[in-house]
Design brief:
Blueprint: E1 5-10, E2 13-18, E3 21-26, E4 41-44, H1 48-57, E5 62-71, E6 75-83, E7 89-97
Parallel strand pairs: 4-7
Antiparallel strand pairs: 1-2, 2-3, 5-6, 6-7
């Protein structure tokens, strides 16, 4: 869905890849409680509306739909957030050049 494939797996970990990007996932037991206010992973996408629609249509429940979360003089950052099954915050993000820049 997000373009990652599993390239390796070990005891309590997995390595995912998308192009030249590598993501290592590790299982941690007895970790501190999760802050519901944090986004733990940002996944940059080329088309946030399309990625949001694909995931939503496959059953992902978003905490918020794509919207501007940071506005700079030249760039806007768009994001849409959801939680993984363990409650970690994940956001899809897309950088867009401002039309009025």
């Amino acid at each position: 869905m997000l373009g990652f494939t599993e390239v390796d797996r070990g005891s309590g970990n997995a390595v995912l890849a998308s192009g030249s990007t590598r993501l290592v996932l590790r299982e941690v037991s007895e970790a501190a409680p999760i802050s519901r206010r944090l986004v733990h992973v940002n996944l940059e996408v080329d088309d946030i509306q399309a990625a949001y629609a694909r995931l939503r249509d496959s059953g992902v429940r978003f905490t918020y739909a794509p919207r501007v979360v940071n506005r700079g003089a030249k760039l806007d950052v768009w994001a849409a957030a959801f939680r993984d099954p363990d409650g970690h915050g994940i956001a899809l993000t897309q950088w867009r050049t401002r039309a009025d820049a």
